[in-house]
Design goal:
- By secondary structure, the chain is α+β, with helices and mostly antiparallel strands.
- The protein folds into three domains: about 120 residues, Tetratricopeptide repeat domain (Serine Threonine Protein Phosphatase 5, Tetratricopeptide repeat, Alpha Horseshoe), CATH 1.25.40.10; about 60 residues, Immunoglobulins (Immunoglobulin-like), CATH 2.60.40.10; about 120 residues, no CATH class.
- It has ten helices and nine strands.
- The strands form three sheets. The protein has a four-stranded antiparallel sheet with strand order 3-2-5-6, with no helix packed on it.
- A hairpin with a 2-residue loop joins strand 2 and strand 3.
- The chain is elongated and about 135 Å long.
- The two termini are about 65 Å apart.
Length: about 350
């Protein structure tokens, strides 16, 4: 079983009623088909012995003599033995697409090999903004743009080059994984035109110096970096103020609790009911007023601190987000219906 099971169709296909190279040559040494059959038999024997390079050479010699698509099956087996899985799947696909009169068993074997190899190889999809550019991977050409099919490759690193005369080539190193596709968009910028030659200057004529050029405008990346730096500074400031507001709210809350505790512990019995005269007399009225004032200031401090902390977080997120990312905002305002504060985020 194993790889030897794959070789049976090679014998059936390659022999074509021949049992040895000598017998094939004996029929008619000048007949290309007879010589090709002998080469296929030799290649099949080398394949059984694990001599995949020699087998591939014999199959190529046979194919050079007779361009039969059935020989592509033999190529596929030799490539598999050499570990060239992408070349193997390409050979099996050529066999299935062109050798339509091959036996059903042979086609079924080719289908099975192709399915297995599809999970062990990757596909490279190349698009380009320029038609007619040659696409090559690892020095091997795969046609010109626009490519109609993806490029099947073995797993690992590969060098992609897309080039067209008159324009600088596009080169990129891509890494292929088994069973996955990698898409690359190649852009070929127009070649820079040569600077015009200035006309000759007559003797005695003094040319004015060329106007000085100011600094180039900032790039998108520089603008984005500056914007992020400013937003981070504002975020730090807003966060610090928010923390201070929360601390103020906490202090006022503690002060209000103290006032309310003093109010409740007065021996004359203070009363929070506004209908009671002077809330029970003594300093009850002043304690209640001070406690209520501190409680209100505490609520304002907590709400302000929460709003500022939220705004600081939004500013930090915006400063680190890409330039084209949606901007997140925080807006707060009075809630008339509930007599409170309403905050909303927006994108």
């Amino acid at each position: 079983m194993g790889f030897s099971r794959w070789l049976l169709p090679v014998v059936v296909l390659a022999s074509m009623a021949m049992t040895s190279p000598a017998r094939a040559a004996a029929e008619d040494p000048g007949d290309p088909k007879a010589v090709a059959r002998a080469k296929l038999v030799e290649g099949g024997e080398l394949l059984r012995q694990g001599e995949y390079t020699g087998a591939l050479s014999r199959f190529q010699e046979a194919y050079d003599l007779v361009h039969s698509p059935k020989i592509q099956y033999n190529f596929g087996l030799a490539y598999m033995g050499l570990g060239r899985k992408a070349d193997a799947i390409e050979a099996f696909e050529t066999f299935l697409n062109e050798a339509l009169d091959a036996s059903p068993d042979l086609r079924a074997n080719a289908e099975r090999h192709r399915s297995t190899l599809a999970t062990q190889t990757g596909a490279l999809v190349v698009t380009c903004d320029t038609d007619g550019a040659e696409v090559s991977v690892d020095g091997r050409s795969h046609g010109v743009t626009p490519l109609q099919t993806s490029i099947r490759l073995d797993p690992g690193p590969h060098q992609l080059v897309v080039e067209k005369q008159g324009r600088p080539p596009y080169a990129e190193k891509v890494t292929i994984e088994g069973g996955k596709r990698v898409a690359v968009e190649a852009k070929l910028v127009p070649a820079i035109a040569a600077a015009p030659v200035p006309p000759p200057v007559a003797p005695g004529v003094v040319l004015a110096p060329p106007p000085t050029q100011g600094p180039p405008p900032p790039t998108e990346a520089e603008l984005a970096a500056h914007r992020g730096s400013v937003l981070r500074k504002v975020a730090w400031t807003t966060g610090a103020v928010g923390v201070a507001a929360l601390g103020f709210g906490l202090a006022e809350r503690l002060l209000a609790n103290g006032k309310f505790n003093d109010f409740n512990s007065r021996p004359q019995g203070c009363d929070a009911d506004d209908r009671v005269l002077a809330h029970g007399g003594g300093d009850c009225s002043s304690l209640l007023s001070a406690g209520r004032s501190s409680a209100t200031l505490s609520t304002v401090g907590f709400i302000s601190g929460a709003v500022l902390a939220g705004a600081s977080a939004v500013l930090f997120y915006t400063s680190r987000a890409p330039a084209d990312a949606p901007v997140v905002g925080l807006a707060c305002g009075p809630d008339v219906g509930r007599h409170g504060l309403l905050c909303q985020t927006h994108f």
